[in-house]
Amino acid sequence: MLALIQRVSEARVEVDGERVGAIGPGLLAFVGIEPADGERELARMTERLLGYRVFDDEAGRMNRSLNETGGGLLLVSQFTLAADTRSGMRPGFSTAAAPAIAEPLFNRLAEACRARHRGPVETGRFGAHMKVSLVNDGPVTFLLRA
What we know:
Its EC number is 3.1.1.96, 3.1.1.-. The protein is an alpha/beta fold. The protein is built from three helices and eight strands; from the N terminus they run E-E-E-H-E-E-H-E-H-E-E. The model has no long low-confidence stretch (mean pLDDT 97).
């Protein structure tokens, strides 16, 4: 399981002109699920999303987590993160989990984050063509692996 996280001032997801998820300050996480991912990866990614220290403390150092700040978390499924890009000029997607495996795991990730986080947890719409808007704060972007 991979998550490309970005510290944001705000972010939102629209599907067919309808806003389906939005947050103020917090993290936007694009989540890619691989075929071998399961409960262990889900638990680890939940821990990392909520505990990764990318927010400034009083001294201006990245030393506070999403759980500490109470900021929002916007989870967006993105199978292209799990693509094989090692060769050629076109990505291969055999390294991404099939939707029948990925969707329930993505939904459980959102549920786990909601259960452990006091701030808002929003999602995009799995499998939809989404328009994601964000204001990256920093910019601060990290690729997490569970």
